[in-house]
Design a protein that fits this description.
Elements (H helix, E strand, L loop, with lengths): L1 H31 L13 H23 L3 H28 L4 H8 L3 H23 L6
Helix pairs in contact: 1-2, 1-5, 2-3, 2-5, 3-4, 3-5
């Protein structure tokens, strides 16, 4: 039964994460760059927001389900390892794209301000820090 709850939380987290990140990005473009909504290339952004939001939502859903079942240490590990790995992957692909430009550091930092890159990066870092905090507060033995 517990495994089913974790799987359902993961599926719900994937859907909610993908929808949240995609709608956040769409809202950002609607407010700050409304002309971009008429550009067909904006749809390419969702090739990043859907899987990244899904992965981050899945991690959050699993961690919430595990914590509700009293497995705070395991939930902390999921957040810390999953969030840290996702933040690292996000930083690496952003850096690889930025290296192709004339000013790699400026391009890297400006890419992190875009919602389809910056929001998953910050979300992943938050998961990692929350997971570490859960591990620091956990008095329970290793599961």
């Amino acid at each position: 039964m517990k495994a089913l709850i974790v799987v359902l939380a993961a599926i719900l987290g994937f859907v909610l994460g993908a929808v949240f990140l995609s709608l956040f990005t769409l809202g950002f473009y609607a407010i700050f760059f409304p002309d971009a909504l008429n550009d067909g290339q904006l749809a390419m952004v969702f090739l990043i927001t859907v899987p990244m939001g899904g992965v981050l939502g899945t991690l959050a859903g699993i961690a919430i389900a595990l914590r509700q079942m009293g497995q705070s240490r395991t939930a902390g590990e999921v957040c810390r390892l999953g969030g840290g790995t996702t933040a690292l992957i996000t930083a690496l692909y952003t850096a690889l794209v930025a290296l192709a430009g004339e000013s790699p550091l400026r391009d890297f930092l400006s890419a992190l301000l875009l919602p389809w890159v910056g929001c998953p990066f910050v979300w992943a870092l938050l998961l990692a820090f929350i997971g570490q905090g859960m591990l620091n507060r956990s008095d329970a033995p290793v599961d």
